């Protein structure tokens, strides 16, 4: 629902987007048409009956009043009660008029109480406070000019102050409750937005990790075919088969990652399961796949029993590091060293010489290493990368491996 729908005044939403909290609190611009819900009609009816009831009680107690004054009281009192239906459209104007009239006319008091309550609910204290103060001030001429037969001026003033402050306090409490509800609603919406943003980032990282590896393999084999058109028929057939296989796997991985975007139907209790995630046990298969693509990769693995969560992060780090080596140092030997111990953490180092270049330089956005750094930091670890004086490019990462393994990490 946008601001225009809430306000019901035909104003474009973007023009009063800043006023959305005030609209939800019931605040509308003075004089603007307000759309009432069923609940609003019920509340307005109750307010009208309350104003009419107070007016009727005051009328029954009016004795020994001149006929002209009594007629004026009845007419103005009836009009004031009818004006209660305008309290949402002109809360400030209604409160000011009824407050001024109540400084002498007694039958306006019921509508005045309702108007003070309304302005306390629908307007901030900087507006409602001075109006209530004016209501307290107008009690002075009323007590002085309209003495009561059955009570003293002090008692009448105390009764009037009690009515005004009670109506005002009641309105302040309702406004504070609405502000609390609005704040909680905003917090819930912010939490939902943050959850959606985190899920989008997770899916983006997953798509980058999966597809960058597959597409780089495709480019590598296609480049070999392009630059070696005179290769033996057997090699060409193997390269074409590798391209077909990696294209099929890329499409399969893409379908699995996009499947995370699907939501459960309304009322379903079980969430959509995530795609199967690789672990440290899948690292030898990844290295073997890179070797079949022509890379010279050496793996030194000394952490076979690592838990699932840090093992998954380490697998992605090695996968991206091998993809970068394939892009920027094709043909150079790559050394992957993985070690770890429970309570001390998991360490990985991917090292390859600089200078060697594949004939086909693959493009890259430069976001891979940034994503790896964020992945490591989010899991409580760290990642460093850069060149060494020996002319090598090194990616080093450390991930925590707690002594006590939780169900999530197991």
TrEMBL record:
Residues 199-264 form the Signal transduction histidine kinase subgroup 3 dimerisation and phosphoacceptor domain. Residues 312-401 form the Histidine kinase/HSP90-like ATPase domain. The chain crosses the membrane at residues 41-57, 69-86, 93-121, 127-145, 154-173. Residues 38-178 form the DUF7134 domain. It catalyses: ATP + protein L-histidine = ADP + protein N-phospho-L-histidine. Its EC number is 2.7.13.3. It is an enzyme of class 2 (transferase). GO terms for cellular component: membrane. One of its GO terms (molecular function) is ATP binding. Keywords: ATP-binding, Kinase, Membrane, Nucleotide-binding, Phosphoprotein, Transferase, Transmembrane, Transmembrane helix, Two-component regulatory system. PANTHER family: NITRATE/NITRITE SENSOR PROTEIN NARX-RELATED (PTHR24421), NITRATE_NITRITE SENSOR PROTEIN NARQ (PTHR24421:SF10). This is histidine kinase. The lineage of its organism: Bacteria, Bacillati, Actinomycetota, Actinomycetes, Streptosporangiales.
């Amino acid at each position: 629902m946008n601001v225009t729908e809430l306000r019901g005044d035909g104003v474009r939403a973007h023009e009063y987007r800043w006023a959305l909290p005030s609209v939800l609190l019931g605040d509308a611009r003075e004089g603007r048409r307000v759309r009432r819900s069923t609940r609003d009609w019920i509340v307005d009816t109750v307010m009208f009956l309350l104003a009419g009831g107070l007016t009727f009680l005051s009328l029954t107690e009016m004795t020994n009043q001149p006929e002209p004054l009594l007629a004026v009281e009845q007419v103005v009192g009836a009009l004031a009660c009818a004006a209660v239906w305008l309290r949402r459209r002109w809360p400030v104007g209604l409160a000011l008029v009824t407050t001024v009239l109540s400084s002498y006319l007694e039958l306006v008091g019921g509508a005045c109480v309702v108007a003070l309550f309304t302005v306390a609910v629908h307007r901030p204290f900087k507006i409602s406070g001075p109006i209530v103060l004016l209501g307290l001030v107008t009690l002075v001429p009323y007590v002085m000019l309209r003495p009561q037969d059955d009570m003293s001026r002090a008692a009448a003033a105390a009764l009037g102050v009690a009515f005004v402050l009670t109506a005002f306090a009641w309105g302040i409490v309702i406004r504070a409750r609405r502000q609390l509800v609005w704040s909680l609603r905003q917090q819930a919406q912010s939490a939902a937005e943050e959850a959606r943003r985190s899920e989008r980032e997770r899916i983006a990282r997953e798509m980058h990790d999966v597809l960058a590896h597959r597409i780089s393999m495709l480019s590598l084999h296609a480049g070999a075919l392009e630059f070696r058109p005179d290769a033996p028929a057997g090699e060409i057939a193997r390269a074409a088969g590798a391209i077909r296989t990696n294209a099929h796997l890329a499409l399969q991985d893409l379908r699995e990652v996009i499947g995370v975007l699907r939501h459960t139907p309304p009322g379903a209790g079980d969430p959509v399961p995530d795609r199967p995630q690789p672990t440290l046990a899948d690292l030898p298969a990844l290295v073997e796949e890179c070797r079949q693509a022509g890379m010279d990769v050496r793996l030194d693995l000394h952490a076979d029993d690592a838990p699932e969560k840090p093992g998954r992060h380490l697998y992605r780090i090695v996968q991206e590091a091998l993809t970068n080596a394939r892009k920027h140092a094709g043909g150079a030997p790559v050394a992957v060293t993985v070690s770890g111990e429970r309570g001390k953490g998991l360490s990985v180092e991917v090292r390859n010489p600089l200078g060697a270049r594949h004939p086909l330089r693959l493009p890259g956005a430069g976001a891979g290493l940034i994503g790896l750094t964020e992945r490591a930091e989010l899991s409580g670890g760290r990642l460093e990368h850069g060149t060494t004086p020996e002319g090598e490019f090194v990616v080093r990462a450390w991930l925590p491996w707690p002594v006590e393994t939780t169900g999530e990490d197991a």
